[in-house]
Amino acid sequence: MRAVISVIGRDTVGILAAVSGECAKYNINVTDVTQSILQDMFVMVMLIDITEMTIPLTGLADRLDALGAEKRLSIRVMHEDIFNAMHNI
Amino acid sequence: MIQTKDILETINMIREENLDIRTITMGISLLDCSHSEIDTLCRKVYDKITRYAEHLVATGDQIEREYGIPIINKRISITPAAMLLASADDKDAVKLAVTLEKAARACGVNFLGGFSALVHKGFAHGDRELIEAIPEALAVTEHVCASVNIGSTKTGINMDAVRLMGQVVCDASARTADRGCIGPAKLVVFCNAPEDNPFMAGAFHGAGEPDCVINVGVSGPGVVRAALAKSEGLDLTGVADLIKRTAFKITRMGQLVGSEASRRLGVPFGIVDLSLAPTPAVGDSVAHIIEEMGIDMCGAPGTTAALALLNDAVKKGGVMASSHVGGLSGAFIPVSEDAGMIAAAEAGCLKLEKLEAMTAVCSVGLDMIVIPGDVAPETVSAIIADEAAIGMVNSKTTAVRVIPAVGKAVGDMLEFGGLLGYGPVMPVNPVSPKRFIDRGGRIPAPMQSLKN
To answer: Smallest CA–CA separation between A36 and chain B, in Å?
Structure first.
């Protein structure tokens, strides 16, 4: 089971470390990371494996919300099913 | 494999283009709550609603968090309340409405629909009592929504009910004049009302529905407009194709959320309503899609054709994305809930008569239109009759939700707040249809009804 973490905002030092640190804390494996620009904003997309996760997905969403507020970034986690449903037939 | 561009597209739709699930609506049959004692009936109604919908809001919130997709409303629709009143000795419809309000508050839902009567062929026990209680019921409750079906392609139009509803709409407004005339904003008069509609104010749980069901309404005018804006130079075949592809994606999301909600709540999944439902927020407007297609302002010549294309493409794109399609399905054109419609009405470009023409090709009807407070009840009735005739002859749902703004005249503004928005008072043709409305009786069903 996988999910996608997206980070949107101003590029600052340590974003990747902070988010992947949070993932490691809950036994979440980061399987892929890409970065790009979306309407002048820095965007980082992380694909994560949540099969062995030690926290509910809503709990992770809360943790990432808090991290986002602290770093002044929008950090959200979304279950992969939403992308599969919308973009694959 | 999930592509990064697909992830970014979805995130952008949600962040920038107001993509959301407009509503998860739980339909609950209350047919087994009938009782001759009104107090017992009310107790059974309250118990069943609160038992079935206990986890609805929490489940919706959880799905929203896990999938990262906003779910704006969680709602309940019930068996048309007039059917319950039929069995009660004391047909105290207001008491029932107050009970529904308490149940809606206990469940934490945004709206509860189904304070309704189906009178397209005539009045049964409880129907008249319920209809006459609508103004008071809407004044003393906040979350309860009412609807009355006064016509259908199969049965024709019950003009006695049409005459009654003109008065009820005006009374509902007068009873809530101190609160922005909110009463009639929660009241829909239908022709060909669907039994599985998740959208308010017209949602009710039809008699042919299962005991409990989850229906979902999607939204996303902003996404369609943005897709069109990025694709200049397309001819109208290309425009239709682009809208279909966009509607497909939006609807797939609705299908996913609906089936997930159904699984978690242990309730069958009913339908996805393939809708473009605007909000007053900038960038969430159906009128702006029409303008993006090349009409300088919504309401100008060409608007009906553009809306017909849009409505059809939304359905074609959505139908393959969903296992069961139902409800109203199409593009909504509520004036006060759509920033582009509000602007066009204020500029005098969008008029009531043009809106009536647009309702022949959109999903519903004359919706959230503010009219002068001194409009005669028979004129409201005649507006309802015209709209019902369009629905009856074209075998489609049509509806009227007009708000007579007490104490206000053409050009004034009426503010509802929230999703209901605000709207300018629009002019209504002052010539009287009173003699026609006073005739009463039934307009016979058209030839289209004889399909067997």
So the answer is: 9
What confidence tens digit (pLDDT) does each residue in B184-228 have?
999 999 999 999 999 999 999 999 999 999 999 998 899 999 999
Residue A38 to residue B255, Cβ atoms within 8 A? no
Residue B209 within any structural domain of the chain? no
- Give the largest CA-CA distance in chain B: 67
Q: What is the CATH number of the domain that holds B149?
A: 3.20.70.20
Interchain CB contact of B230 with A (< 8 Å): no
B41/B123 same-domain check: yes
> With an 8 Å Cβ cutoff, are B6 and A83 in contact?
yes
Q: Contacts of residue A53 in chain B, CB cutoff 8 Å?
A: none
ipTM: 0.91
Range of the domain at B113: 23-58+65-191
Tell me which residues of chain B have a pLDDT lower than 50. none
pLDDT per residue over B320-352, tens digit each?
999 999 999 999 999 999 999 999 999 999 999
Amino acid in position B369 = I
Residue type, position B439, single letter: R
* Residue B394, CA distances (Å) to B352, B382, B445, B449 in order: 20, 18, 12, 10
Classify B321 as helix, strand or coil: coil
* pLDDT in the model for residue B133: 98
Cα–Cα distance, B236 to B233 (Å, whole number): 9
| pTM across the whole model | 0.94
Closest chain A residue to B10, measured at CA: A83
Answer yes or no: do B321 and B441 share one domain: yes
